[in-house]
Design brief:
Elements (H helix, E strand, L loop, with lengths): L10 E4 L4 E3 L4 E4 L4 E4 L2 H7 L3 E3 L3 H12 L3 E4 L9 E7 L3 H7 L7 E7 L16 E7 L5 H11 L4 E5 L3 E3 L3 H6 L7 E10 L6 H9 L9 E2 L13 E5 H6 L11 H11 L3 E12 L5 H12 L2 H7 L8 E3 H11 L3 H21 L6 H25 L3 H10 L1 H26 L3 H26 L8 E3 L1
Parallel strand pairs: 7-8, 7-10, 8-9, 12-15, 16-17
Antiparallel strand pairs: 1-5, 1-6, 2-3, 3-4, 10-14, 11-15, 12-14, 13-15
Helix pairs in contact: 6-15, 9-16, 11-12, 11-13, 12-13, 13-15, 14-15, 15-16
Length: 465
Amino acid sequence: MHHARLPDGFGIRIDPRVRAYSGGRVLIGGSPMRMLKLAPSAVEMIGDGYLEVVDAQTAVVARRLLDSGVANPRPMSTPSPHEVTVVVPLRDNVEGIARLVPALRGLEVIVVDDGSSTPLELPDLFDAAAHVTLLRHENPRGPAAARNTGLRSAQTPFVAFLDSDVVPRTGWLERMLGHFSDPAVALVAPRIVALEPEGSMLARYEHARSSLDLGRKEAAVRSGSPVSYVPSAAMLVRREVLVEAGGFDESMHVAEDVDLCWRLQESGWRLRYEPVAHVAHDHRVSFGRWFTRRRFYGTGAAPLAARHEGMVPPIAMSKWTLFALLAAATCTRIGLLGGVAALGVTVLRLRRIFVELDQPTRIAAILATRGFVGGAWQLASAVCRHYWPITLLAVLASRRIRRLTLVIGVAEGIADWSTHREAGGLGPVRHTVFKRLDDLAYGAGLWQGAIRARDLRALEPRIGN
């Protein structure tokens, strides 16, 4: 099924970030970035950047563009919401479920009470306009097990998982369902926004920087890409596919959503992130609960690294980019010359790939520079987030490293603020302080999980040629 042909009427549009060269015969873009060479007939099909599937040939071209990450889907048909069952795992959150269920008007809903201290009862939900089935675990088994219980009880072709602390916005379901007109798509997720964006400074930071909010840009969900997974707080799946995959891993109490996404990807299914669909989340905005949750998320890296080796590196870049960055970081004349030389080697290596294109040196230089900037961002983030215990030891040992770390910490925080400032409303100083606390919590959880598992693979960088 996941290799099936795209249906007639299905459309794709070239992503606006993709660059075309040589009269459109070569496209460079996607994530990770790649070069795609097109036959003249394919160039003619795409035209102004939009391609509609009308026969077997256009279906093949559209699939290739989608799978390369240079195009986004534009479905022309939508399954009915009546083909969806909503599964809500719940534990001790009566207020949340009472707020959520009325927003699911007309839908089949299965609420799984995962061992609440005071059992939920159906009379609590009688005012809801949805048809609600209540299931219960006598003892808490975790959200993954609760979702699987609901999955086994559902009978519809599609299942939407919503946590009890979210509220979907109007049109959320219809906007996601259209993606399933592609028979290769197994999972679609909406953008998760703040239920209450205003409030304390922490609430405003969380509105701008929540780990659940994956941003405004639509994307394929792939490991190693900017959208490498989607959170289980809100997602829509093909029921049969998820049943065949064994559902969520019940032994995992954190990062089970990441594991599910990667298992589906490894099985050949496509996953999509649809930011036009919104689901609002009631963020934790008391400092203690927020910090603890961030640390908890960090503990998920070790079990993920054990299940998906090489897929959770804190750093992933070429050896030439890494050498250029480390050399430049010395802030010495020899170091800077070494960095420039390494960057030059990267340009020459890339130029060989683009030799058939117009202006191959210019293209190679642009891509090498992008790689250097992206690598610098990765390295700065890793120093402050994943490797901060090592950074702390280095800071205590060296005055030069202390100064460099201060510069990196401030610069990375301000750069992060500039990317997210429209949403949060915090100034650069306060945003940077919260970002450093965020990184401190996640990094502590990462090391805690790795030490507890006696497995450091979640800390291993991936350095390529």
